[in-house]
Amino acid sequence: MELAWLGAGIGAGLVVIGGGLGIGKLASSAMEAIGRQPEATDQIRTAMIIAAALIEGIAFFGLVICILLELKA
Amino acid sequence: MPVSKIVDSLIIPADSVQTTSGNDSSWILHHIMDSRELDFEPFFTIHIPQFPLIFGIDLTPTKHVVFMWLSALLVLFIFTIVARKYRKSLIPSRLANFFEVLIIFVKDDIARSTIGKGYERFVPYLLTLFFFILFGNFLGLLPWSSTFTSNIGMTGTLAICTFFTVQFNGIRQNGLFGYFKGLIPPGIPVLLLPLMAIVELLGLFTKPFALAIRLFANMVAGHTVILGMIGLIFFMGTIFVAPISIIFVLFIYLLEILVALIQAYIFTILSALFIGMALHQEH
């Protein structure tokens, strides 16, 4: 049963790496875009938040599976 | 595993976790999950009485239900006052002025910019969603309270409301056949059609599911981190960890205020986005 905990822990770590990379890449592009075109800041910010929420949603799918594993163990 | 079983395992019943001392982390769950008592720990605890079963269903209010009612009443109360102020004079008072900023924000920046033409019909629904979730998130940050938005049942219900709003209005706008035909983007090869149909049909259900999970997981995660940071003091067993731990807790708490706002915003804007996608399928 400890292996399930291990799986949940490693899975959570992998999920966080993926989510972090995704949001980091998104934020870097958004900031570049804002730097290039400061007058479009509002639109870029809205688009960025929506995309970040979608990435985060996928990451949370993974995390919820980790929680289920952990509760099952 | 069937969906009901997954949901059941996410709603952790109060009696499944015993609070024990020592190296056990179950006390963190105890503070996050739903329970039958209102905890005002150093002073008193209110036990909610068991209601009689109605058709075999236990309708006893739990902690989250009590705070959900509180939030609903607060929203109702505050917005009745705000609306009444405008009836008296068009110059807003301090309270009305504050909420007007938020209402205009939801109306212009969320509804109009994402739904587009015909957005007026959805503004009441989006406003209700936004303020209900916002009040719930902020209510959860007060001492002795509990965050009802960290209950998967509650976020799931909101997501189901959004799901039916999206489907109903999409079908009403485009017709039953037109709506389901419009789900598949035009100009894809015929061989891919069955696959795309399955993917898009699944997409209809994963969108609200993601909505529910996102709000739920965000609210649970923040509170777990705060409790874990405080727990660090007791796990380490020394008082010297306390200052560092408290500073981190304060930082996370301030972040939580931001998250409370952002999650209400995201739930509303994604609902608006899905409604807009169902209404104007040509984009």
Tell me the total number of β-strands of chain A: 0
**Main β sheet profile of chain B:** 2 strands, antiparallel
* Radius of gyration of chain A, CA atoms, in whole angstroms: 17 Å
Most extensive contact: A-B, 16 and 19 residues
Name given to the CATH homologous superfamily of chain A: F1F0 ATP synthase subunit C
CATH architecture of chain A: Up-down Bundle
List the uncertain runs of chain B.
Answer: 12-22
How many DSSP helices of chain B? 9
Q: Estimate nothing, just give the exact number of structural domains of chain B.
A: 1
The low-confidence runs of chain A, each spanning 5 or more residues with pLDDT under 50, are none
Q: What characteristic shape of chain A results from the CA principal axes?
A: elongated
**Overall 3D geometry of chain B?**
globular
List the strand order in the largest sheet of chain B: 1-2
Q: How many alpha or pi helices of chain A? A: 2
> What does the average pLDDT of chain A come to?
87
CATH fold-type name of chain A: F1FO ATP Synthase
What is this structure, in a nutshell?
The complex is a heterodimer of chains A (73) and B (283). Chain A is mainly alpha-helical. Chain A is 92% helix and 0% strand.
Q: What is the strand and helix layout of this fold?
A:
The complex is a heterodimer of chains A (73) and B (283).
Chain A: H1 2-36, H2 41-72
Helix pairs in contact in A: 1-2
Chain B: H1 3-10, H2 26-32, E1 37-40, E2 44-47, H3 63-88, H4 94-115, H5 123-139, H6 152-174, H7 176-183, H8 193-236, H9 242-279
Antiparallel strand pairs in B: 1-2
Helix pairs in contact in B: 2-8, 3-5, 4-5, 4-9, 5-9, 6-7, 6-8, 6-9, 8-9
